[in-house]
Amino acid sequence: DAKTTQPPSMDCAEGRAANLPCNHSTISGNEYVYWYRQIHSQGPQYIIHGLKNNETNEMASLIITEDRKSSTLILPHATLRDTAVYYCIVRVGVSSGSARQLTFGSGTQLTVLP
Amino acid sequence: AAGVIQSPRHLIKEKRETATLKCYPIPRHDTVYWYQQGPGQDPQFLISFYEKMQSDKGSIPDRFSAQQFSDYHSELNMSSLELGDSALYFCASSLTGNTQYFGPGTRLTVL
């Protein structure tokens, strides 16, 4: 699976949008971009994933560049509860009989400030 | 919605003892993954099972073994425990390799 690069930390004011970047310049055509977050010592929480189109759900939006070499996770209105480590993970798509693991990098520590 | 269940949530063992961690996947999920997260570290993949067969293997010590049962729950067995095994152990489940959903974890402390 392709390696990802994220800034180690970011701050965001409460109520503002948090934009978390991720570089994955060696991504392959069949690899998806996944975002998870981990709030202190809790289990990683799935946020969103995409292949090449932008995606939006109730938690966040995912913007993937046209060349797919980078992406941005957007939390539209950050709250204090969004303070967590955010992981950008690239993973191949599903194939029959496979159970591909997630390879966690260092992630970005997002701190939402009051 | 039902989530992944892990038990116990906390476990304290002495060195050289054994431990068994259990994972109950989301209903209808057929794939289970185990991850280990040491203090101040990121989660590391240990092993996975698809339809009760081992699928992938990561950095799992030979002292550890795991299996997935007919009801799809999984157990991680850890023997000859060492101080360095103290960590959070997460189980995740998915439907046929799709999006993984994590449980709350088991905190293992080896004294």
Give an overview in words.
The complex is a heterodimer of chains A (114) and B (111). Chain A is mainly beta and 114 residues long. Helices cover 0% and strands 46% of the residues of chain A. Chain A has no helices and nine strands. In chain A, the strands form two sheets. Chain A has a five-stranded mixed sheet with strand order 1-9-8-3-4, with no helix packed on it. In chain A, strands 2-7-6-5 form a four-stranded antiparallel sheet, with no helix packed on it. Chain A has strands at residues 9-13, 18-23, 31-38, 45-50, 55-56, 61-64, 70-75, 84-92, 108-113. Chain B is mostly beta strands and 111 residues long. In chain B, 0% of the residues lie in helices and 51% in strands. In chain B, strands 2, 4, 5, 6, 9, 10 and 11 form a seven-stranded mixed sheet that branches. In chain B, strands 1-3-8-7 form a four-stranded antiparallel sheet, with no helix packed on it. The A-B interface holds A 34, 36, 38, 41-46, 49, 87, 94-107 and B 4, 31, 33, 35, 42-45, 48-51, 55-56, 58, 88, 90, 92, 94, 96-105, 107.
- Rounded to the nearest angstrom, the distance between the terminal CA atoms of chain A is 37 Å
**Which range best describes the helical content of chain B: under 10%, 10-25%, 25-40%, 40-55%, 55-70% or over 70%?**
under 10%
> Helix and strand string of chain A, N-terminal first?
EEEEEEEEE
- Arithmetic mean of pLDDT of chain A: 92
Strand content of chain A: over 45%
Tell the overall outline of chain B.
globular
Q: What proportion of the residues of chain A is helical, as a percent range?
A: under 10%
